[in-house]
């Protein structure tokens, strides 16, 4: 292996170490407890070294957000395999909610934090993994519109409506607001709301 190849490998390994350490600190202390200085201390490098790989903390959080979406995609496997569009929408919703409730720290970073989106805005990068999932939902909504011959429906608007519902359910559950409505079993309540939403949209 030549010196240039070795340097590239070492550079990639250091970047991976920075991200792994950032993820560990994020999950332990939350996004407000994460800083470049704290990351540098953990990996025993100077902050200047981290800035050779990332512009700032926002860029680190953006890459972590993309990693979170890759984890979320694993929850979506049953939905990806479902052929019926309305059932697929239901499975997407269930997977989204399950991920949000089981991976609360990841969810907060991906959907409630402004830092990663600041990096997207500053660097004019696409929200790649997030938009890929939203586009998948939009395509599925379009299939359901065609299946039920729903004239005048906009697939993207319906997808946004569905996203708003599941996002609201996750945040209400994580902040214990759903318990006010139905203290005994939040899961049953969530399933009923999801089923009612899809029924109202596609089975009138």
SSE arrangement:
Elements: H1 3-29, H2 36-43, H3 47-51, H4 57-75, H5 77-81, H6 85-102, H7 104-112, H8 115-123, H9 128-147, H10 155-174, H11 178-181, H12 186-202
Helix pairs in contact: 1-2, 4-7, 4-8, 4-9, 6-7, 6-9, 6-10, 6-12, 9-10, 10-12
Q: How would you portray this structure in words?
A:
The chain has 204 residues and is an all-alpha fold. It folds into two domains: 1-54, Arc Repressor Mutant, subunit A, CATH 1.10.10; 56-202, Tetracycline Repressor, domain 2, CATH 1.10.357.10. It has helices at 3-29, 36-43, 47-51, 57-75, 77-81, 85-102, 104-112, 115-123, 128-147, 155-174, 178-181, 186-202. It is elongated, with a radius of gyration of 20 Å.
Describe, in short, the structure shown.
The chain contains twelve helices and no strands. The protein is mostly helical and 204 residues long.
Biggest β-sheet strands, sense, barrel? none
Q: How many distinct beta strands? A: 0
* CATH topology label of the largest domain: Tetracycline Repressor, domain 2
By secondary-structure content and strand pairing, the structural class works out as mainly alpha
Could you name the ranges where pLDDT drops below 50 across 5 or more consecutive residues?
none
Please name the CATH architecture of the largest domain: Orthogonal Bundle
Number of helices: 12
Radius of gyration: 20 Å
Shape: elongated
The averaged pLDDT comes out at: 87
Oligomer: single chain
CATH top level of the largest domain? Mainly Alpha
Helix amount = over 70%
Distance between the termini: 65 Å
Number of domains: 2
H-E string: HHHHHHHHHHHH
In percent, how much strand structure appears in the residues? under 5%
């Amino acid at each position: 292996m030549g010196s240039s190849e070795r340097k590239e490998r070492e550079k990639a390994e250091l970047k991976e170490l920075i991200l792994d350490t950032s993820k560990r600190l994020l999950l332990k202390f939350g996004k407000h407890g994460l800083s470049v200085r704290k990351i540098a201390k953990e990996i025993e490098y100077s902050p200047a070294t981290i800035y050779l790989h990332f512009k700032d903390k926002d860029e680190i959080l953006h890459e972590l957000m993309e990693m979170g979406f890759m984890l979320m995609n694993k929850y979506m496997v049953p939905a990806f395999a479902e052929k019926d569009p309305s059932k697929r929408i239901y499975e997407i919703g269930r997977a989204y909610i399950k991920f949000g409730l089981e991976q609360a720290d990841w969810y907060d970073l991906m959907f409630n934090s402004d830092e990663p989106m600041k990096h997207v805005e500053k660097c004019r990068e696409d929200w790649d993994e997030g938009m890929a999932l939203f586009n998948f939902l939009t395509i599925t909504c379009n299939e359901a519109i065609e299946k039920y011959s729903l004239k005048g429906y906009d697939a993207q608007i319906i997808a946004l409506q569905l996203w708003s519902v599941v996002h609201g359910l996750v945040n209400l559950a994580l902040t214990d607001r759903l318990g006010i409505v139905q203290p005994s079993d939040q899961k049953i309540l969530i399933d009923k709301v999801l089923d009612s939403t899809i029924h109202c949209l596609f089975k009138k």
